[in-house]
């Protein structure tokens, strides 16, 4: 149907939510808004779906959430009775409608006779991953839009290993979702009936306690925490999200007693009133933490995003100002600390492995290689890191030591199969204590790594393309990117290109070598000076992501090269944009 036919169909629904009906009235006459809402249904990608909340087939609401869940339920109807009976764990964050959407998931599942285990209140995404494994459910659903602005919400789907749903099962589920042609036809059961028939269970502290017990195993040197960490001052902000529920308990349990929470940002507020972009990648997310840090003379500031899977940090400098660290820098100091601790303890496994995304720093590869540990590069998306962990467990051929993405996501212990900012907060605080004992900071720590392994600089650039029109522009840009292969950036020749969509690496002389990565719409350019540049469309947001990783003789040299490459890369993309407008 056309967007107008879809719009009229929604208007005819007699039992449409009053809030959504009011939005339909507000859209009247705004053709662009109507097209965004009604021209195309929400796409369900490898990580689920995410979008602006509102009325329409292309926005997040109880009907699109219900349709996604109907697809999951229809798939589970094809399973054995035993697998179907295992049910689905359901979590939600602090955003508008998150609780409502989570309970809608339970109501749709219950209508199919599928049990659900729904958290009693907001919880971090990594705890939902843990709950799937701990309760042995067949799947998990997390209602969250992670670090997006307040108007967004999302639906993340997890498999029985606690990682995002495996591709084979996901493909079948998406087929079932696409078969739901009437968003208003799915059956739902009442919560009261579901509770009375044991098809909806409320979980909370009974999962919190075992999760926290596992989190406690992340710290390495308990004597260090007791002697230094217990007196070290740190500031923690959950950015109005789920981290406040578990984060402060985890820090207290570990022995970090001198920490303060940013009071206003410890309120679970879906408006995110103090930080319109609740993303620890952005410096403004630290404004209030820096203010409190200066008052407390805190050594370390830590921020977790609203669903507490990403972590950012800032370090106090001798002049009292705070230096923000990048995700690559945080990952590198964590990795070096983990590997050195294992080496000192004499238990560094011979088959140890570290896993990172292909757009993350090569500094980590140098660190891993120095300790005789294998680095495995995977596509962007923590599901691919989870796949490597599962493969290693199944084959019993490798020992997982650490996994990360440059976008501020890290995993230390695999009792969770997604990035976990609660785990990361504890270990980063311990590493800060380690350097403090030496009269140094975490920032000094990354500088020491640079001095040992080389000076690295990385940057991620997000080009935004909103709305249905934006999706079309993104596709055209990526088509041009594949067609127009540049031979150089900033005057430095391209040595080879990883065309991951085609599954080959193409050298400058035209020769091709097969890649082992799964096919994805990603191009990665390797330059003659060791720099790499990557281009990919985001799987969860209307953005094309541009990545640069370079190195130099010193930090100034690396930073200067990074700036030159950024200018060149932006000019290239801008030129492509001009050709399609």
Automatic annotation (TrEMBL):
UniProt key word Magnesium: yes
Domain annotation Alpha-D-phosphohexomutase alpha/beta/alpha: ranges: 42-180, 210-314, 327-453
Keyword annotations from UniProtKB, A to Z: Carbohydrate metabolism, Glucose metabolism, Isomerase, Magnesium, Metal-binding, Phosphoprotein
Catalysed reaction, written as an equation: alpha-D-glucose 1-phosphate = alpha-D-glucose 6-phosphate
Pathway where this protein functions: Lipid metabolism; Glycolipid metabolism; diglucosyl-diacylglycerol biosynthesis
GO molecular function: magnesium ion binding; phosphoglucomutase activity; phosphopentomutase activity
Enzyme class: isomerase
Segments passing through the bilayer: none
EC number: 5.4.2.2
The organism's place on the tree of life at top rank: Bacteria
Cofactor(s) needed: Mg(2+)
Domain Alpha-D-phosphohexomutase C-terminal: 503-551
UniProt entry tagged with the keyword Zinc-finger: no
GO biological process: glucose metabolic process; purine ribonucleoside salvage
PANTHER family named in the record: PHOSPHOGLUCOMUTASE 2B-RELATED (PTHR45745:SF1), PHOSPHOMANNOMUTASE 45A (PTHR45745)
Protein family according to the UniProt entry: Belongs to the phosphohexose mutase family.
Protein name as it appears in the record: Phosphoglucomutase
